[in-house]
Amino acid sequence: MNIRNFIPGEELPESLKTGFESGECTDASWIWVVEREGKIVASLIAAPAHIVVILLRLMATPDAYPLDVRALLLKSTADIKARGFNGYMVWADPTRAPEKALIEIVKSAGGFEFPNQQVACAGKL
To answer: What is the CATH number of the domain that holds 37?
Structure first.
């Protein structure tokens, strides 16, 4: 297993494509991937936002090993901390099992869940 930053122009497996990885403003230094046997099997897309980093998308293919996502989170958060950030935010849907699991991972790592329901909004510029 190798965890590294995404290389601009590199192709992700269809199941990992989100659109975040291919925009004109995309900064590959904020995208981490897990490689196994020369194939990308998981990715994390993040973005700096003042004093925190927003974890935008965490995905894995069926070829990923169960601990690949854990290793990806550990490596990316260590890199984020080394870049001078001291926190992160992530939006998750607790009605979806994988995202509920992520909420529990955040809590077990000392993070917290906002006490009031939040709604993410977005718009096109």
So the answer is: 3.40.630.30
Candidates 43, 42, 40, 46; CA nearest to 81 is 46
- Give the count of domains, the chain: 1
DSSP, residue by residue, 30-59: GEEEEEETTEEEEEEEEEEETTEEEEEEEE
**How far is the C-alpha of 55 from the C-alpha of 13, rounded, in Å?**
20
pTM over 0.85: yes
| Any domain includes 121 | no
Cα gap 89→62, rounded to integer Å = 26
Could you report the per-residue pLDDT of 46-76, keeping only the tens digit for each?
A: 999 999 999 999 999 999 998 999 999 999 9
* Domain coverage including residue 91: 2-108
Q: How far apart are CA 109 and CA 78, in angstroms?
A: 13
